[in-house]
Design goal:
The chain is mainly alpha-helical and 299 residues long. The chain is globular and about 50 Å long. It starts with a helix and ends with a helix. The relative contact order is 0.23.
């Protein structure tokens, strides 16, 4: 029963993440990056407070646990969200979604190194295919009148690395710390950090409030804050606490497909033939990475 609930949490997490790229792009048409991040974590923390009002928990941690949570927070939310929004400010949702497909491969490598989760030869082949697919896409994008978005792509790759490290550290942390405790502290740190950066950089309280009068922007921030920040953090950490990191990483495929489809169908972004080829190569590689871990799970 717990395994089924963890699998469901991983599926829902991936769908929410897949759509979040689109809402980030929508919000960027209205406001700047710092304001979006500050408000995103304000609403995430408000959602968290409502959750805690309904289900109070013990937040006490020892010094070692606090240090571990602080390290986790450095990668998620601080590095992850900063690099993600910087990347999406320079590349399309479709491109970001395709690059995001290498996330499971990177997670597998880190899990094998630090959690001793074994990597089979077929998984190594999958890792190679995923990376080759990304290289192919970037080479094609740099020719034929398509601009090579090197910096934006690098930011997205940094966000992928931050996610992989966060998942591995969370797997270690959940042996002694409850998933909701990790979520509470990481959300609070994100709230303090991004709001402090916004106001230190010259942001005003009037802009902070007035920006929320735009309904499309408000809906985007609500989605990004409550669902895509607080919700996915709790769902992902819960799934990782019950399942191997390699198995949880399978569901990044769902996020990738949702991201690409949302960019094409909703935002009307261009999709060229080489995007399709690159996506197929990447996703085939990711499937190979995870096929062994799937077959080894008890039925």
């Amino acid at each position: 029963m717990r395994k089924n609930s963890a699998l469901l949490a991983a599926v829902v997490y991936s769908i929410i993440i897949g759509l979040s790229f689109m809402f980030v792009k929508i919000s960027l048409t209205y406001e700047g990056q710092l304001l979006i991040l500050a408000q995103r974590f304000t609403f995430a923390f408000l959602g968290l407070l409502i959750f805690l009002a309904i289900r109070p928990i013990n937040l006490r941690l020892n010094r070692k646990e606090i240090l571990l949570v602080l390290v986790i927070s450095l990668f998620y939310p601080l590095v992850f969200f900063s690099s993600q929004i910087l990347g999406l400010n320079q590349i399309t949702v479709t491109e970001a979604g395709i690059i995001q497909a290498i996330a499971p491969a990177i997670t597998v490598l880190l899990a094998s190194l630090f959690l001793k989760e074994q990597v089979q030869r077929i998984q190594a082949l999958g890792i190679f295919l995923s990376i080759a697919g990304v290289v192919f896409l970037q080479l094609m994008n740099s020719s034929g009148g398509y601009e090579f978005h090197l910096i934006g792509s690098l930011f997205i790759i940094v966000s992928i690395l931050a996610t992989a490290i966060w998942q591995v550290l969370s797997r270690i942390a959940t042996k002694t710390i409850a998933p909701i405790q990790i979520t509470v502290y990481t959300m609070f740190i994100g709230l303090l950090f991004f709001n402090a950066i916004y106001f230190i950089s010259g942001g005003s309280a009037s802009d902070y409030v007035n920006s929320l009068t735009e309904i499309p922007y408000l809906m985007s921030i609500l989605y990004l804050g409550v669902l895509s920040t607080f919700g996915t953090s709790l769902l992902s950490i819960y799934a990782i606490s019950k399942l191997p990191v390699i198995q949880v990483s399978i569901f990044n495929n769902v996020a990738t497909l949702v991201t690409i489809l949302s960019g094409i169908l909703i935002l009307n972004e261009q999709f060229h033939y080489y995007h399709m080829i690159g996506a197929i190569v990447i996703i085939c590689g990711v499937i190979l990475v995870n096929v062994k871990s799937m077959s080894k799970q008890p039925t």
